[in-house]
Amino acid sequence: MTVNTVAVDFDGVTAELPRLEDADEQKLLESDRIPGDYDDLRDFFLNVPDDFNPKEVLTPEWRKIVARVLLRPEPVPGVRDALEDLRSAGYRVIIVTNRPPALESLTRQWLDENDVNYDELRCVGSGCRKGELPDVDVVVDDSPHNVLSAAEHARRGVLFAREWSNVEAVADVSDVVVARQWSEVPRMLVLRSISRSSTDNRARTPAPAGD
Q1: Residue 80, domain extent
Q2: What is the pTM of this model?
């Protein structure tokens, strides 16, 4: 039996993207040192490799990433059940994120604390194109760029549509479908609505179950 591998994005797809409060973000952006009242931020530095340069974390881009980690986002509704359904159906689930490798331990900790079951975690950094991963059959992502890249490389793409996702960008693309909630994704895959043999896999919002 062939095991299909599903690559699932983390921020915005597995975990919610918390909105940074202005005061919290500004505090991180303006600091030239580890803020004394951000205990979790100090913990972050204690968990990175010895050869990691903390100054890299204190760039604006890094501070925003760390701030989102420290705000301990909630899981996206339905993700736990959906991933468990996929794994029970024989799919291999890889959480693939453009977070840098230095955040792997905290990302794994979040997954464990929130009871999200998966087979592998990859923190690949910003230079990786998820749609080009050689051992992936399906990419579930909120970025049209990543699902379009998957389609270009003969893989399947599921655009997990959030308020910031440009659904129109995939409207006429073969091998890409649109899901607006996690309960739709296992049904799409398990029922082969985006299988390689399907002839009707244009980007769309699936009909409710039973239709």
Answers
A1: 5-15+75-190
A2: 0.72
